[in-house]
Every structure is written in C-alpha cells, then in structure tokens.
Amino acid sequence: MSRKLVSQIHPWLYTACVETHRLRRGLSLVGSKLAKVDAGRQLPVRCFTHQSLLLRKLGDVDMRLQYNKVTNLKLAAAKINGVVIRPGETFSLWKLVGKPSAKKGYLEGMVLKDGEAKSDIGGGLCQMANLIFWMVLHTPLTVTERHHHSFDAFPDSGRVLPFGSGATIFYNYLDLQFQNRTDKTFQINVWVTDEHLKGEICSDRELEHGYHVKEKGHEYLFDMAKGQYFRTNSLWREISNRQTGQKIKEELIDTNFSLMKYAPPADARVVNIYSDLRDLRPQLA
Q1: Domain that holds residue 250
Q2: Which residues of the chain form beta strands (DSSP E)?
Q3: Rounded mean pLDDT of 129-134?
C-alpha cells in the first residue's frame, strides 16, 4: 500500500502552499514595466492573425465543459483585447486576466491536471494562451515564459498547428509572458465569434522580417517495458527578409517529449524502445 502524501492527509496544506506560491509570483512582477490595455488605440499594421475552433469533441469529455469554456474565453478576451506592448514592456497573461473565479462569472471548464482531463473554474483558458503564443512566434517579440504539458491527452482532431506548439497556464505561477525588446510598439486584439477564438497582432510600423514555424523529427515511440506510448518532435522558426524572401536564419523554439494518453493512428510508424527513456530522449535536429 502506497503512503499518502501529507497534503492528502491535511488538504489545507496544499491550499496554503498554492496561495504562498501565488503571492510570491505576484510580488515577482513588482517594478516591471507591464503592458496595459489601451482600448482607444488601434495600431495600423497587421502583423499576423490566427483563429482556433471553439468547440471540439475531445474523447469522452462532457461537451458542457466546452460550452462553458466559451464563456470563460469571452471574459478573458475582454481583459486582453487592445493590450499595447511598448518597447521595454512585458506582457503577462495572468496580470491582465486576473484570477478566474465564479464570482467573476467564470464557469467549470476542462483542465489537464495530474495526467488527466478534469474540470475546474476557469478551465479552457489554455486555448487563449495557445492562440497568443502562436501569434507571438510570428513577430520579433521575445517569449520569456511558456509552459507545455508533459502528456498529450487527446488524438489529433482537426489539428492545424504542429504538435506541442501550445502553452499551458495555471493561475498565476504558470504564466505566458513575453517582452518587447524592439523599438516598435505592438498590440494584441482577441475576440470570440460564434465558432472561433480569433486574434491579431498589430504594430505601429511594418516588420522587416517574416516568420515561419515548422516541426522536425516527429515520431511516435513505444516503451516495451512500460507499455506506454510517447510522442516527440522539435519546433523551429525560420526568419527571412520580408522584402526579398531570403532566409536569414533558423532557430530552435523547443523540443517536445510527451506521454500519450491514447494509441497512435493505425497507419503511424511507431519506434519501439527498451531502455530507460531518460537515456533515449532523441537529440532532435
């Protein structure tokens, strides 16, 4: 019989620990130049746009959580839409949105936690983080904090972006943050339609460079000893001259190595592995 954690015996200890982390995290931003919403301003140059479908069937997850997510996204969008990031400023998603709570109108949505799909107040806001992170990758803004899940909960269903290109958040110490280290001013606009979460990043001037994100080395792995599937790839960004189209450089964004909670597609090539996965993590190129 496994021993219970102290936090399982005394649940209040877990709550106290979380709140302590949140307090420390909030204090860590004191003195930072933070981006703020300027609803009366609309920057003229559209740099990049993207949209994601609001309602998707994810395994046997209750669709009620998907509908609730739409409400949560609308509330968050109202706090983010129109945010202006001036030179030297930092965008913090949680600093803008604040703590999701039932009092503010947030509903129970789906969250991925402890290796499972669960429900919690404010669930589904990761879709907002995903959208903004993907857009930022197509600008010269510098991502300073981004997290992703260590497991992949659902098989691809209408996926249009590379695997592992999302950003998970948890109030407030798993945040999405980026800085404007350029001499330009940027603005993020996000809104919810009947079918999509939509967004755009605008600037006060034309960009000199173009950006293209792609994946390399995508593989499905099967650990013969543990009977578990894993999925891996690497994300790269190609930067080019916007006028000539000439490639300037290619840079690594991140590598992904995630436990799968489902079996690979029937036609997928699966690589069998036998040793300690820590020794077999691919050196992706």
Answers
A1: 209-285
A2: 36-37, 45-53, 83-85, 90-92, 108-113, 116-121, 142-145, 151-152, 177-179, 186-192, 196-203, 209-223, 228-241, 247-260, 270-273
A3: 97
